Amino acid sequence: MLSEAKFNILKQISGEFSRDETIWASGYLAGLAGAPVGIASSPQVPHSQSETSRKITLAYGTETGNSKKLATELAGIIKKKGIQVKLADLSQYKPKDLIKEEFFFVIISTQGEGEPPILAKKFYDHIHENELILNHLKFGVLALGDSSYPQFCKTGEDIDSRFEILGAERIIPLKKCDIDYEEEARHWIEHVFEVTAKASSKPQLSSASKVATGRKKYQGKVSGIINLNDITSDKETYHIEIETDESISYQPGDALGILPFNPRNVVDEIISLTGIDPEKQIETPKVTASADELLYKHLNISYLLKTTVAHYAQMTGHHIPETRLGLLDLLRIYPIKNAEQFEEIITILTYQAPRLYSISSSPEAHGDTEIHITVAKSEYYIDDQKQNGVCSGFLSQFREGDHLEFYIQQAKHFKLPQPDKDMIMIGPGTGIAPFRSFLWERDATGAEGRNWLFFGDRNFISDFLYQSEIQDFLKTETLTHLDVAFSRDTTQKIYVQHKLEQKAQEVFQWLEAGASLYLCGTKDPMSKDVEETLLNIIQNQGKRNKEEARIYLEEMELNGRYAKDVY
Ligand SMILES: Cc1cc2nc3c(=O)[nH]c(=O)nc-3n(C[C@H](O)[C@H](O)[C@H](O)COP(=O)(O)OP(=O)(O)OC[C@H]3O[C@@H](n4cnc5c(N)ncnc54)[C@H](O)[C@@H]3O)c2cc1C
Ligand SMILES: Cc1cc2nc3c(=O)[nH]c(=O)nc-3n(C[C@H](O)[C@H](O)[C@H](O)COP(=O)(O)O)c2cc1C
């Protein structure tokens, strides 16, 4: 810290600085102090306004590819208008380069429970954990999200407000977009074009504009539910068939979204433990309903966010270490004073998040009033007690004739290729779901392209999901190639990536001949291991170096020939 006298001198001198001089001086001082470049430092002066006013960076942070696809399209639009645009993937972007930017626009989605996409987390953490000086930066954020989630567009909001705190100038208000973002995004880029063309330095109001959308809800009735695993398996995976009265509009590759209800016994225990009147009407920002209905149908009570637990600690006066846990456990370990206090606690709970399930039926083969999903009952342990995930537990208890509400989540990136094109599908476990849909659709439409499936699970006998259908597809040659890996049938564990490796030459030949590549199933570690193997195959078979292999796969992704749905 400076003494008051020195501070006054600094204030007096810096008061006469121009904006560029201020930036230069801050870099100079930090340089003297030996601070790392980019963190409150950098002796590098940004280019003058006249040199760079028409050069912008469009950065994206993505998980399933929407932001990347959008950023690429929008960059094309403004390039056509004669503005230089640098497209930057936040997973590769060096935050210290922010000091060199003048116009910096971000397109970023929100994932998990209000978290940044995994690959953009490093950037997100860096700007939040470091006191960067960004006074020279003009910025704008387009946030992609889904208003069904409690933390709608949270990552975009966070970046927008953090840039402002770091001194950057918001030249276009935060735009929060819902699932049908395309048109709004095109308006946004027009706006970006206008403000950068004018190189306006007037700050804009930060009022976030939200695109309001309604999502079509379908009322369904369960027409069949079976556990696809054998009784000897330690897993349960449910094939669920749902029928509707009205026709459902979806395409293979899309997912079904559902808002689960919480376990009835847990809600009853919470009510009895807190003494709250279950009929008491309580107002929350989005829903006003009885305490019982809120706890059962609308609020997340199973695995509270750290921020909710911290809020609970503040309200109840307990000292609670940073943690996540279920509401019932929280109430047991850190009791509340009385039912009135619990009424207040209810208002700080977040809403239940929808869960997505890849649709495993095909509209062509199964008709438009029937839809199938493939649900693995998720299990975890608390104090040696087996617990089930909220939604998979909820769905596994459905019986024929039970009713449920759902919606369709379009997967814009995960679509069948042209009928004459070949495709390679990698889908162990429930990753098989969209590929069952693809195969049924190709079978029903008589598509000529060749189809190669890589499937894997634990044991051949008990875990070969949809085995008889897959064998039928082989017989009818809808499925031209099949490779399976059952990890627990052999002493050395064999996974789908090992099967890919064994067929490396043929896999690469397919890719070179224009085949599309799909990957679906668990994110960690499966999708990472498979992608690593794919890169090795491209490198070794295609005689490319690591970077060239990455670009090869990235180009396939941009051209819509490589798509992943991993979770
Ligand atoms: C595009 C997409 C497609 C998908 N397709 C499929 C599909 O076809 N089939 C499929 O089965 N799934 C699919 N999923 C995953 C699915 O959406 C759900 O995430 C999955 O069913 C788990 O949800 P859940 O409510 O059962 O578990 P949750 O209740 O959300 O729990 C998930 C995990 O959180 C942890 N957890 C929860 N509560 C606690 C607690 N109190 N203490 C400690 N840890 C806790 C546990 O590790 C638990 O396993 C897909 C996801 C996406 C994004
Ligand atoms: C598992 C999962 C969690 C999500 N969580 C949120 C969320 O908390 N808030 C939100 O606004 N959107 C959420 N979304 C929606 C995504 O932000 C939205 O689908 C976006 O278009 C994805 O863009 P991307 O492909 O660039 O990652 C979630 C989506 C998935 C699949």
From TrEMBL:
Reactions it catalyzes: hydrogen sulfide + 3 NADP(+) + 3 H2O = sulfite + 3 NADPH + 4 H(+)
Organism this protein belongs to: Chryseobacterium defluvii
Regions annotated as coiled coil: none
PANTHER family per the UniProt record, alphabetical: NADPH OXIDOREDUCTASE A, NITRIC OXIDE SYNTHASE-RELATED
Keyword Flavoprotein among UniProt keywords: yes
Protein name stated in the entry: assimilatory sulfite reductase (NADPH)
Gene3D superfamilies on file: 3.40.50.360, NADPH-cytochrome p450 Reductase, Chain A, domain 3, Nucleotide-binding domain of ferredoxin-NADP reductase (FNR) module, Translation factors
Cofactors that this protein relies on: FMN; FAD
Domain FAD-binding FR-type: 215-417
Ranges of residues in domain Flavodoxin-like: 56-193
GO cellular component: cytosol
Its EC number(s): 1.8.1.2
Keywords from the named record: Amino-acid biosynthesis, Cysteine biosynthesis, FAD, Flavoprotein, FMN, NADP, Oxidoreductase
